[in-house]
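Hello,

Our lab assistant flagged a job as stuck in the queue for most of the afternoon. It eventually completed. Since we weren't sure the result was trustworthy after the delay, we are filing this so someone can double-check. Below is the sequence as submitted and the structure that was eventually returned. Let us know if re-running is recommended.
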Amino acid sequence: MSGLTVPIVLQLVGVAIIIAEIIIPSGGIISILAALVFGYSLYIAFTQFSPGTGMLFVLADMIIIPVLIYVGLRMIAKSPVTLNATLSKAKGVISQEPGLEGYLGKNGLSKTDLRPAGFAMIDGKRVDVVTRGEYISKQTPIVVHGVIGNQIIVRERVEK
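-- returned structure --
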C-alpha cells in the first residue's frame, strides 16, 4: 500500500459526504464536514509528500468534485426518491374550472360582504368572487368585470 492511500481515501470520503449533502439537506453542516475532510487530505498531501503532489490533489479536486456533484444531481433527479409526477390535461388536470369565462359581463348579487373576496349569486349559482380591492356590502348588485385563472372579478353594478 502506498503512502498516498490515506489522502486518496479521505478524498473519496469527502466525495461521499458531498453526495450525502445532496440527499440529506442539512443547511450546509454536512458540507462543512466535507470541506474539513478535503482540507485534511490536502494538508497530508502537501506536508507528508510534496507541494507538487498537493497541487495534483487540488487540480483533481477542481475537476472531479464538480463533475461528481453534477452527475449526482442528475442521478437523483431521475431516481424514484424524487417526485416525477407531471400535471397535464391528458391526466385530467386543469388550471381553471371550465366555464368560468361564461360569467364575463353577467349580473349578480353579492351574498356576503366582499372585502375583497366573498360569495355572490350569479345565474342562480353561488360562486366565489373577488373585487379589485374595493369593499362591496352584502346584497349589492354586481357585474362580472373579468375572469383571471380561477378568480371571478366583480365590481358594483352602476344603474344607468
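-- support follow-up --
The delay was a queue issue, not a problem with the job. The result is valid. The radius of gyration is 31 Å. Residues 119 and 128 are 5 Å apart (CA to CA).
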